[in-house]
Amino acid sequence: MSQQVRTVESVRRTNLAHLLRTVHLHGPQSRAALTEQTGLNRSTIADLVAELGRLGYVEEHSPGPSGLVGRPSPVVAIDPRVVAIAVNPEVDALEIAAVGLDRGIRVAERLRQDDLLTPAETARLVAECIGRWRGGVLSEARIVAVGLAVPGLVRAADGMVRNAPHLKWIDEPLHDVVADATGLPVVIGNDASLGALAEHLFGAARGHDDVIYLNGGASGIGGGLIVNGMPVGGVGGYAGEFGQNRPGIATFADRRARDGVLEDEVSRSRLLSAVGLTRADDRELAAALAAATAPDATAEIARERSILATALANAVNVLNPSVVVLGGFLGILAELDVDGLAQAVAAHSMPACAEDLQIRSAELAGDRLLIGAAEAAFEAALSDPAGFSADPGGFSADPGAPSDR
Q: Which of 233, 274, 282, 306 is most buried, taking the most CB atoms under 10 A from its CB?
């Protein structure tokens, strides 16, 4: 293949990726709108849309009445059959969902667990769900990949789970185990980093380029960073472990763990205990905290909010974000008095760093980690829709499409 042909092919594939990502991120778009957004001419847009349709990513619809003179432009939308399988293993449950490239959740299940899952058990349950769904709700779906949001350190290079302490997974080749069980491409990331990605693209941090995200779950506290609009993973993919930092605690009486890290002091299990619950979902926990009046319960809530404010101020001083997003039980703590938490963070921060700082709860609520996992699973197809191949049961790029690989 000549250099000129390679260059033309490379430009074509870049344009295909840009067009597909635009429709994925912003929803159905008319051809006219795509022409204006991309700067490409109408005939090029028509050809690219036709190819994406042939590859199985998009479909076109007739537009509704517009009242404008002239022939209305067809609307380009994601083909609803294109999905990723999103998985979040936790200490008390395995959450799994089929998430569409159009961001709709086709089906979701929460499989409660009395014992800690092993990687092999996780892979088996995921494979069983996929098999069952393929015989029903996903019978016409085209599965792109499996994305897993894991509460622990995940090596970016190969999906090795280096340490998920609450699951007691150390150096587990989860990527290979799930790939073998499902026969699908697999992508694995830290749960909070994927939650940060989801909230940045579609949730509370949309439109912000400098973001701190903290996720509070049954396994503790993790975090994710967006700097200059880009996710920050660090050299090995382990950046954002705010839960392992040691916050300043003003008085010894407020300390609950000797030399404890943030997730030891600000804890979902401590909140549950304070309101007399052994198990609750986020909705039930939120209701219990909002209704708490017992002195021990209100004191624990105040203690955790105070320590959280100090920890957030440390992060704000270092990173100077425009928005801090809190997910899971941290979002519940914030919602009890968002303005009060913001004032406490500002009181511990350098004034310039806290200027115009916003503190928000995650908008995607309980779906944030699954949407983030799906986004990671879609990335290969979004980056190169013509060159990507996936589910041998029904989704692959056109085998005749030229390739420079």
A: 274
Secondary structure percentages of the chain, helix, strand, coil, to 5: 45, 20, 35
Intervals of CATH 1.10.10.10 along the chain = 3-78
Tens digit of pLDDT for each residue in 83-99?
999 999 999 899 999 99
* Intervals of the chain under pLDDT 70: 1-6, 64-71, 389-405
**How far apart (Å, rounded) are the C-alpha atoms in residues 215 and 150?**
12
Kindly give the pairing relationship between strand 211-217 and strand 220-227.
antiparallel
The alpha-helical segments, DSSP class H, found in 208-349 are: 262-265, 268-274, 282-291, 295-319, 329-335, 338-348
pLDDT in tens, 22-57: 999 999 999 999 999 888 999 999 999 999 999 999
Distance CA 319, CA 214 (A): 14
Residue 139 φ then ψ, to 5°: -60, -30
Pairing of strands 142-150, 82-89: parallel
- Helix or strand (DSSP H, E) at 46: helix 42-54
Pairing of β 358-361 and β 323-328: parallel
Coil, helix or strand at residue 69: coil
pLDDT, position 334? 97
Domain with CATH 3.30.420.40 in the chain: 82-191+367-383, 204-363
88 close to 148: Cβ distance less than 8 angstroms: yes
pLDDT (0 to 100) of residue 279: 87
CA-based nearest residue to 304, from 363, 349, 353, 257: 257
Order the strands of the 161-164 sheet from edge to edge: 153-154, 161-164, 169-172
Are 205 and 325 a contacting pair, CB within 8 Å? yes
Please, what CATH class does the domain formed by 3-78 belong to?
mainly alpha
Task: Give the CATH fold of the 204-363 domain.
Answer: Nucleotidyltransferase; domain 5 (3.30.420)
**3-class DSSP state of 136:** coil
The fold for domain 82-191+367-383 equals Nucleotidyltransferase; domain 5 (3.30.420)
Which segments within 157-233 are labelled E, that is strand? 161-164, 169-172, 186-190, 211-217, 220-227, 230-231
Element containing residue 11 per DSSP (H, E): helix 3-26
Kindly report the pTM of this predicted structure: 0.89
Q: For residues 139 and 90, give the distance between their C-alpha atoms in angstroms, rounded to a whole number.
A: 28
